[in-house]
Amino acid sequence: MAVRACGLIIYRRLQSAPSSKITDGIEYLLLQTSYGTHHWTPPKGHVDPGEDDLQTAFRETQEEAGLQASQLTLIEGYKKELHYPVHGKPKTVIYWLAEMKDCNTEIKLSEEHQAFQWLKLEDACKLAEYEDMQATLKEVHQFLCSKKI
After folding, report:
1. pLDDT for 84-114, tens place per residue?
2. Burial letters 93-125, b for 16+ CB under 10 A, else e
3. What would the pLDDT profile of 123-142 be if each residue is shown by its tens digit?
4. What is the largest CA-CA distance in the chain?
5. What is the mean pLDDT of residues 61-71?
6. Residue 83 pLDDT class (50, 70, 90 cuts)
7. Residue 149 pLDDT > 60, yes or no?
8. Dihedral angle computed from the Cα positions of residues 108, 113, 119 and 121, in that order, rounded to the nearest 10 degrees
9. Which domains does the chain have, with CATH numbers?
10. Pair type for strands 3-13 and 26-33
11. Cβ distance 127 to 40 under 8 Å?
12. Distance CA 130, CA 40 (A)
């Protein structure tokens, strides 16, 4: 059976960006794992028994980044499912998109992560070494560009 995980791609909008280029002021939150290859990823984790996928995404975000659901705005119309093997077993990861209500909210990492960064799209793609995550970040950015936010 496939391993199932859920998470949130979290972004913030910097107030200093000129309004003509709203998307220039968007930064994405990536966390660096404290295990394995120390890869960079949005907050995510395994679904617990009795939990639905979105509950998992919010719980994992709270555990890994210290962010409460009340500090985020879930963005309607975006949900991404990724499928890839981990240690020879299939894994499904489902991401939703969420915006920080206050771009200055403090991030509080759990022991699962050793660092975090807020990054513009290009830098986020450089740190997110997996192609499907890079493609997802670009897709999110396009989605945000196409919405008149």
Report:
1. 988 899 999 999 999 999 999 999 999 999 9
2. bbbbbbbbeeeeeebebeeebeebebbebeebb
3. 999 999 899 999 999 999 99
4. 48
5. 97
6. very high
7. no
8. -130
9. 3-13+24-146 (3.90.79.10)
10. antiparallel
11. yes
12. 9
Check if the beta carbon of residue 70 is closer than 8 Å to that of residue 23: no
Residue 144 contacts residue 26 (beta carbons within 8 Å): yes
Q: How many residues does the chain have?
A: 149
Q: Which of 77, 73, 116, 123 is nearest to 98 (CA)?
A: 73
